[in-house]
């Protein structure tokens, strides 16, 4: 239980496409928890300094502890990964894993408005499903 609470974000880099937003225009956080045996829930929070035309997660990739990718959720195919005309996004995705296996997630978060788009990559701590 304590590991779930300690599974806070580690921002491992940022990049941009098109015009750049100020790097401080938004902050992204993500963490993994296991609400039931075998399940991995990735919770994502993106908070911007102002209203964005769109913000949220463009992708969430779930990895086994050994670095093997086992699932990817993308905003174009998974409902609820973005918010429009907002300064905040909060959402989650759930992966049905193997009980006892350790998993972590890499989340690509972004914020976009007329002045440009910025991305942040967040890696979560591991959690046991």
Could you give the topology of this structure?
Blueprint: H1 2-6, E1 10-17, E2 26-33, E3 39-64, E4 69-74, E5 82-96, E6 102-113, E7 116-123, E8 127-128
Antiparallel strand pairs: 1-7, 2-3, 3-4, 3-5, 3-6, 6-7, 6-8
Report on this model:
It is a single chain. The chain is mainly β. The chain has a single domain (2-128), classed as Immunoglobulin-like. Helices cover 4% and strands 66% of the residues. Strands 1, 2, 3, 4, 5, 6, 7 and 8 form an 8-stranded antiparallel β-sheet that branches. Strand 3 (39-64) and strand 4 form a beta hairpin. The longest helix is centred in the first third of the chain and has 5 residues, at 2-6. The protein starts with a helix and ends with a strand. The model is unreliable at 1-18 (pLDDT under 50).
Helix content range: under 10%
The chain-level structural class is mainly beta
The CATH architecture name reads Sandwich
Number of structural units classed as domains:
1
The CATH superfamily title: Immunoglobulins
Number of discrete helical segments: 1
Runs in which pLDDT lies below 50 for 5 or more consecutive residues are 1-18
- CATH topology name, in short, is Immunoglobulin-like
Q: Strand count, sense and closure of the main sheet?
A: 8 strands, antiparallel
Question: End-to-end span in angstroms?
Answer: 12 Å
Oligomer: single chain
């Amino acid at each position: 239980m304590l590991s779930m609470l300690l599974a806070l974000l580690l921002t491992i880099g940022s990049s941009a496409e098109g015009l750049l937003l100020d790097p401080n225009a938004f902050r992204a956080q993500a963490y993994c928890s296991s609400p039931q045996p075998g399940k991995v829930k990735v919770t994502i929070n993106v908070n911007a300094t102002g209203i964005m035309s769109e913000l949220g997660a463009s992708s969430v990739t779930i990895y086994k502890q050994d670095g093997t990718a086992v699932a990817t959720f993308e905003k174009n195919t998974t409902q609820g990964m973005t918010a429009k005309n907002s300064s905040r996004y909060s959402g989650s995705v759930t992966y049905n894993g193997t009980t006892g296996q350790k998993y972590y997630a890499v989340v690509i978060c972004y914020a976009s408005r007329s002045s440009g788009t910025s991305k942040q990559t967040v890696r979560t701590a591991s959690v046991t499903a």
